[in-house]
Amino acid sequence: MATLDESPAAKKWLPLEANPDVMNQFLWGLGLSEKEVECYDVYGLDEELLAMVPNPVLAVLFLYPLTPQSEEERILQDSTKRETSNKVYFMRQTVGNACGTIGLLHAIGNITSEIKLVEDSFLDRFFKGTANMDPLERAAYLENDREMEDSHCVAATAGDTEASANVDTHFICFSCVDGELYELDGRKSGAISHGPSSPGTLLQDAAKVMQGFIQKNPDSINFNVIAISKKLE
Questions:
Q1: More exposed terminus of the chain, fewer Cβ within 10 Å: N or C?
Q2: Which residue out of 39, 106, 152, 170 is catalytically annotated?
Q3: Is 153 a catalytic residue?
Q4: pTM for the structure as a whole
Q5: What is the SS3 assignment for the chain?
Q6: pLDDT in tens, 4-27
Q7: Per-residue pLDDT reduced to its tens digit, 79-129
């Protein structure tokens, strides 16, 4: 969960636990209606287990271990020019261990047309305030926002395990925007397209990409998948 800025002066938060209950309370407290959206554990990436996840899935969060190989790939990806839809909401990460919160912001930021945020809530103000900013400006906006820092801190200490600032795992988000599957990672310079997708196949399409991550690190058990699904009335 390192950041763009590795200096000792870089701001660092406690990491969020990969826990749907913690994330639900966090999002609901920030202005996402409890009637709209809920986070769920994904217990595996085979078709039967994916079919257990409530539909429609709006976004997928993926926690994976940082390794020398993953760092090499990130640097290589950042050196490659990419065309991205201007409809993708993307922000950089400049706060240490903030990747869980940034993953959630990426998830919500790309579905604001499909959900209703509580008017004048934190999330409503955040997305309106950052709509016309570039990814680094959004990062600075978040870094200087005390309300979010306090909310993140509460959520980070609400999990089942004791929070530690020393971690070697990282959250990213997968979203479907304009018919494409995007990987949204605040440590990278921009969103990465993984090809065609649709709201109905988002989870299955993301699963294929996540399986690629897992196959590169078969000895690790530090993987976790959380789906963000819309609640149907």
A1: C
A2: 170
A3: no
A4: 0.91
A5: CCCCCCCCCCCECCCCCCCHHHHHHHHHHHCECCCCEEEEEECCCCHHHHCCCCCCEEEEEEEEECCHHHHHHHHHHHCCCCCCCCCCCCCCCCCECCHHHHHHHHHHHCCCCCCCECCCCHHHHHHHHHCCCCHHHHHHHHHCCHHHHHHHHHHHCCCCCCCCCCCCEEEEEEEEECCEEEEECCCCCCCEEEEECCCCCHHHHHHHHHHHHHHCCCCCCCCEEEEEEECCC
A6: 444 444 788 988 999 999 999 999
A7: 776 777 889 999 999 999 999 999 999 999 999 999 999 999 999 999 999
Calculate the alpha carbon distances from 20 to 155, 175, 232 in Å.
11, 18, 18
Choose, from 99, 152, 173, 176, the residue flagged as catalytic.
99
